[in-house]
Amino acid sequence: MLDYRADSPRILIDFLSYHETIKAHSQKTVDEYYLDLRNFFRYMKQVRDPSLKDKELDEIDIRDVDIDFVRTITLTDVYGYMSYLSRDRVLHQNSRYSGYGLSASSRARKIATLRSFFNYLTSKAHLLPENPIKDIDSPKLQKSLPKYLTLGESLELLDAVDGNHRERDYCILTLFLNCGLRISELIGINLNDIQDDALRVYGKGNKVRIVYLNDACQEALRSYLAVRRPIAGRDAGALFLSNRDQRISRSSVHALVKKYLAQAGLDSSQYSSHKLRHTAATLMLQNGVDVKAVQEVLGHEHLNTTEIYTHIDNEALRVAAKANPLGRVKQKEKPSKG
């Protein structure tokens, strides 16, 4: 968690507070907005002030940035910043082995931050009469389909679970593969979020949704709860516990997923806990679940986020194509004319 109030101008603090309190965005999202805008303001100050030319960006103070400064920013300035990001921005600030130039996806995220900032200034704070970057284009992104496990690979992953925490770990993998949870949602589950066959999930922006538990999930939960030791203290209500009787951490879940992927003979460098979310979505769609229902299960705000899974190679469609009685017909040879 970053403390953005210490080195931010009032205009930036107000914007971040709006997203943190009114929009109820996660701390991670607010931190990303802060870092993106801090870097942008540092760049703009360096461009505008010749005395800052030889300074490192992270040495530039932005606390004097105000609405008068922001009013001078144009669409051309932002495109200049994008050019800087694509060519001159150091990839890894604290590494001696770093290259230059951010990827198109990283630049697109920074444009999204700037869009949100200028929309706030025009539509919410009413500090600007017109949005200077309303017509900005985002970098063209290479579309890639999400990686996922097949049904057979998912079964192999579950079969690989063993060890002292096998009930807990099996339950975690089962919820990932059946409910399509984000890792933040999984580690945030409390005991009182489970009500019979329903699970209360806190998604992005603290949005609550209900996910229904199938037989496999209910059985995995029963097995785990039978061995889960009761604890006292701050994390007493947490569903999944670590070796130290604390709420299990994000890094611990990542580690156990990688461990069982390797034990199942699957490429742990290609898959992660988030890929298990992709797997759940893909298997649901491949087995006839409506895309709108999958959207609700996953907690996607927009349907087009869910629809990417409908473009994944679907074995059921291959079977349907082969089932067509015309699928085996070959053109008959005819004597050539002439």
Commentary on this structure:
There is one protein chain. The protein is mainly alpha-helical. Helix content is 49%, strand content 4%. The chain contains 14 helices and 3 strands. The chain has helices at 10-22, 27-48, 67-71, 75-87, 104-124, 151-159, 166-179, 183-187, 215-227, 250-263, 273-286, 291-298, 303-307, 315-323, and strands spanning 194-195, 198-202, 208-212. Strands 1-2-3 form a 3-stranded antiparallel β-sheet, with no helix packed on it. β2 (198-202) and β3 form a beta hairpin. α7 packs antiparallel against α9 (215-227). It is globular. The termini are far apart. Residues 90-99 have low confidence and may be disordered.
List the helices and strands and how they pair.
Blueprint: H1 10-22, H2 27-48, H3 67-71, H4 75-87, H5 104-124, H6 151-159, H7 166-179, H8 183-187, E1 194-195, E2 198-202, E3 208-212, H9 215-227, H10 250-263, H11 273-286, H12 291-298, H13 303-307, H14 315-323
Antiparallel strand pairs: 1-2, 2-3
Helix pairs in contact: 1-2, 2-5, 7-9, 7-11
